[in-house]
Design brief:
10-stranded mixed beta sheet; alpha/beta; 10 strands
Length: 339
């Protein structure tokens, strides 16, 4: 007890005095910098037009979680997202789930649209082999850097990320997946540890001015939920801090996994990946559909339903009240992505 008391006193000694700002001075700074808040160069395109139209892309300083149950396509989505974004943005990809060779097979499979298993087992011959070799050359041009250090704590990660920002100009950090990360602060159990990880990731995004995108496992609640089994924000696993810290939360859902092949209007859901925007600070929430290939490797735009973007108008009215007369434009311009 004495030791703990001494440590607490030492901690309190090192607490800096808080800075005090007047509202008027902060308002002046904010008003003079409003134009730069929405500079096009700051926006990181997702490479998916319909997703951009809802999110308007990602921004530096944001923490984004991509949630899903097993077999929903979290790694597939992150790989395709990385490929899209890397045409204009350097990416640092932390793979805690797959070793480097298996992850590289996912990237090769995505650009050439072949089954990842065939890439790994070298069951590629003839025209398919030429196709893979051709598309693999495209990967060499993309600024995607992979780290698979399984011993990396979130505290050590920050130092490594800073180095890669200085050396390679990293603007986006991807993590697959957050529940496999560790922290030096784990004395109060796993929930506390994950809370610390999430807050450190958000702090890293803010202070290093990068976008952090991390996949997350979900609880078993969607399986136990009757009906369509769609995930909810509260299904983020192990810690409520994930949904609190996140600027955006995207949920992945494949209805066909649960034997649901059509929607209420009779539209086919086979081969579709529903992307549910469950949280979007200062933006709309809703759902869009993307299409996955039969190889489970490539994700592309879906142009099937006439109106497959379902936006919460209640959320839009809330936002209108918040942003007042500040002009925000949603764009679907994404002509730079070859994938």
């Amino acid at each position: 007890r004495l030791k703990n008391a001494i440590q607490q006193v030492e901690l309190e000694k090192n607490i800096p005095n808080p800075e005090l700002h007047s509202l008027s001075s902060l308002a002046d700074v904010t008003l003079t910098s409003l134009a730069s808040l929405y500079e096009p160069d700051d926006i990181i395109s997702t490479g998916f037009k319909k997703l951009n139209s809802v999110l308007n892309g990602f921004y530096p300083g944001e923490l984004v979680y991509v949630g899903g149950r097993p077999s929903m396509g979290k790694t597939m989505f992150l790989v395709n997202l990385a490929l899209n974004m890397s045409t204009a943005t350097p990416i640092l990809y932390f793979s805690y789930d797959l070793p480097p060779k298996r992850l590289s097979a996912r990237f090769i499979a995505a650009v050439s649209d072949v089954e990842p298993g065939k890439v790994l087992s070298r069951q590629i011959f003839g025209p398919m082999l030429l196709q893979v070799q051709h598309h693999s050359k495209e990967l060499q041009k993309l600024p995607i850097y992979i780290s698979s250090d399984f011993s990396n704590s979130v505290e050590n990660m920050r130092e490594f990320v800073e180095k890669q920002i200085a050396e390679k100009g990293i603007k986006v950090v991807m993590i697959d997946y957050v529940q496999l990360m560790g922290s030096l602060k784990q004395r109060n159990g796993r929930e506390y540890e994950l809370t610390n990880i999430s807050r450190e990731l958000k702090r890293m995004a803010n202070e290093l001015n990068i976008c952090v995108i991390a996949s997350s496992q979900l609880s078993r609640n969607p399986e136990q939920r009757s009906g369509d089994h769609k995930p909810k924000l509260s299904d983020l696993r192990d810690s409520g801090s994930l949904e609190q810290d996140a600027d955006k939360v995207l949920m992945l859902h494949r209805a066909e996994y649960y034997g649901i092949t059509t929607d209420g209007d009779g539209n086919s859901l086979i081969g579709l990946l529903e992307l549910i925007i469950s949280k979007n600070r200062s933006g709309p929430i809703g759902s869009i559909y993307l299409k996955r290939s039969s190889t489970f490797a490539k994700i592309s735009e879906f142009a099937g339903f006439d109106d497959d973007i379902e936006i919460s108008m209640k959320r839009m009215s809330e936002i209108d009240g918040l942003i007042g007369d500040i002009p925000i434009t949603f764009t679907d311009n994404d002509d730079n992505s070859p994938f």
